[in-house]
Amino acid sequence: MTLTTDRKNKKMPKEELINLDIDGKQVTAPKGVTVHRAAEINGIDIPTLCSHKDLTPYGGCRLCIVEIEGLRGYPLSCNTTATEGMKVTTENEAIRDIRRDVLQLILSEHPSTCMVCQEKVECEHVLGGTVRKSGVTTGCRWCPNETDCELKKLVELMEIEELDYPTLYRGFEKEREDPFYDRDYNLCILCGRCVRMCQEVRGTAILEFNYRGPHATIGPAFGRSHLEAGCEFCGACVAVCPTGTLYEKASKWDGTPDFQVVSTCPYCAIGCQLDLRIKDGRFSSAVASHDEVVNDAQACLKGSFCLGEVSHHFTRARKPMAKEGNYWREKTWDEAFDIAVEKLKDLVPGDFAMLVSPDMTNEGLYASQKFTRMVMGTNAIDSTARRSLSGRLGLWADLFSRPISIRGIGNASRILVIGLDTRFNFSIIGVEIRKAMQKGGKLVAIDPRENNLARYSDLWIQPNPGYEGNLLKALAGTGADLESGASEAGIDPELLKEAKEIIESGDDLTVILGPGVFHYSSVNKLIEGITAFASKDNTTILPLYTGTNARGAMEMGTFPELLPGAVSRDHSETIEIFEKKWGGKLASDRGITVDQITSGAKKPKVLYLAGAVPFFEKPDCDFLIVQDIYEPDFECDLYLPASSFLESAGTLTNLEGRVQEVVRVEELRDSVRYGRARPDWWIFSQLAKKLGADGFDYEYVTEIQREIADVVPGFPEPDKIDREARVTETPGTVSIPEAVGNPGKAGDGKFILVLHPEGYTHRGISITSRVEGLQILNPENGFYISQADADSLGVEEGDILLVKADTAVGKAKARIEKVLPEGVIYLFVPDSLGGVGGRKDLDNLYRLERNPVRVEVTKSVL
Amino acid sequence: MTGTAVTLDLDGFTGIRSDLIPILQHAQDSLGYITEEAVRQISQKIRITENEIYGVATFYAQFRFEPPGEHHIQVCMGTACHVKGGQQLSVSLEYQLDAKMGETTLDGKYDLEQVACLGCCALAPVVKIDETIHSQLTVLKLRKVFDEDEES
Predict the structure, then answer these.
(1) From B35, which residue of chain A is nearest by alpha-carbon distance?
(2) What pLDDT sits at residue A77?
(3) Which segments of chain A have a pLDDT < 50?
(4) Does B116 contact chain A (CB < 8 Å)?
(5) Which of A85, A118, A406, A588 has the greatest number of C-beta atoms within 10 Å?
(6) Domains in chain B and their CATH numbers?
(7) Has residue B123 got a pLDDT over 90?
(8) A219 Cβ partners below 8 Å, 6+ apart?
(9) A504, A520, A543 - which closes a domain
């Protein structure tokens, strides 16, 4: 199976350039851009409050007026297309006068005393912020946007010191009922950036101008809250607001950040680049970075709003702790290591097992497997990534051996999306699909649930859950395949024929597979479908999975059957290389997998959980070591505090194979208050040294990166992290097995239960359990049930449902969704079970072997 | 403003984006005003979010989001009426009937609307109640009109 297209090599039409004269400077710009953008590209500033490079021309603020030779009056530079030979003047006395007047008019509806106050300078420089002695109606008393305010910058630029117009205060109530950000429309200048961002780029259209003229406001329909209206809470509107109207709750009063650094989001495999803003040595807020390669100034709610609370939460455990008799005592690192060494020193293979989280950095993962293999002498290292990469590792090794491109979606002419909702998870994919659609691309969506893409897809097919793979296989085949596929999935064959026509009518095809489809028992069919599509010309497959660094985990070899480089453990040549490089004999045992531990098939004496917590209760073992950023919900014998993504440096591998840096932005300050958290790789290497092992003399993270670059083909040297997309090509990779998975018992009952991976975990905990805003949204909790089924069961939102599959019984709240098909209920399964203690009742359902499965549903009477 | 469960008949429309205003007009004709439920149905039909539809509909003065009242009151805000105190008439009406412009009174008796010009500028300021034009009004005269109406 080889893939014939590489989007990167595809010939893109060459950009045509035009020449023009701006302020007497001869400049060039791409054909088709506006005069404003042409000036911006060439470093000439034209003041504006409404123009934005990602948005269509709007011409709302009227500040960007210029003079253009041959055009009458003062055209707006933001909606005049630059043409060859144009002569533009961006500033002279007349233009300045008009702009000053226009800005004053804008200010007459904006509380503006903070900008024209006589004591402004003193206030900012002496007191470090406004004293806010002016009233609400005239001053910016509620505005936190003191130094970031674009309006204020323009007032300073145009030297406006007093206002000639009366001020109108619109007297709106501040809107604070939604999570993550506040809105104060008294400060709004109706520039429309947020509206256009929400519609054009995100395709969500939650924000819209309501009414007109002096009554114009911004918001969802019928005065609903953003929550009711279906907002994605991606934060794109907050990021483009030129005033303090939209502001993040958490960092609102932090003040102007001291500096910002670009880092990688630690929450999913897209690997968005974020600008982390730092105030007083502490993380303040995150904004999606203008990154050319991955996310282009977009992010999802997790990246925009969930970083600070997960790292700074008051329940963070930052000190080594150990159980002493009945007591839980604080330890120094040396004491903690001594306790660990005592327990670990005389173990034989089979007595020890380590589970690592796919949310760890490559460096932590590499050190963990080297520690297990070389120090503990066993292959008993496994990762909960095994669950993220469901459907066997061989499949994923194969998927990762093909080029994957996220930004490529934006240029695709035909897109087939299976089982993906981009409202909260993978929302960058949604943005890219939207881009492709705007360029004339066509979208076919296959999902039993209505997702946020189905609304603007050209065709939405709603099969019976579990049959998405069958449809993919059918779509790759001929007429007869279509008929049989459609009848299996319970849909009209004509629909499938139409879908096939659409996806085959373009020059190329991108198949996007949501994380849920890999978790079905029928994954065999899906694999056949993928294989069939992958052999076609101009077809790209983009598989999505939960677990940030699951691809990295595979490449670092944190599985019993894989060595670093995702090479099979049985590949003798590679074993030789590693034995030479690591200076010791490699273990040859079969190791212990996460499923063997959770099912109780294997019971190691000492269990080492590094970030992975796949249990609700303490697993059965003599000694339990937990290394994480939070203590687990159950008792353990030794707790080692790991540093969070803000406190340690490292790299993460995204789904395209790009190795991207996580930058340390907070110092590790050893103190009573800040604790003594340490990076994962440091803990492993120190422990290895205490156990007398060689080859763990890492002092800096770069040393370990250099070693990884040495043994993993394609992994960049620490000073050459170029973020190039890579394919994983390895000899002797685990092959795709003929039959996959245990189909399990079909079960009986009227309902079909679908288990869907959720994507709201980080390391051992649920992000939701630490982030207040997410608790309000809480998208992953409860059974999703259709309105019709709820009515027939007599269930209302929030009632407890009892779901019974064979012997497994689970209880959770009902969540009614209007558009779900009848007879189907959805349950979201977290990757880690820390911080979700309230969902213990669902444990049996989480472990069901078959998915989807027939179940009985009743209303619980309590 | 609760939406009634009346289903709109949207069969005559193809479901393209530019159908929005004809569909909204159709909804207002058949339901009397634009209900939340109607917006939901239109959203499904032409695949534009409810927020966008609401944004478009509120832009135009012709669409209303409240059930119409028994009597329709139009306050003229044309140039002549404005100069002669149309704004005061509006404000006093809002106080007297306890409803804002564009709304319907709680008892469903009156709905209020501001219009640009009724074309009888010589009689300014005027208020039109149903088909009757009350001319050269003052706030007191206007109150009297309503008091008489209450008595009868």
Answers:
(1) A222
(2) 94
(3) 1-12, 738-740
(4) no
(5) A406
(6) 1-65 (1.10.10.1590), 71-151 (3.40.30.10)
(7) yes
(8) A175, A185, A207, A208, A210
(9) A543
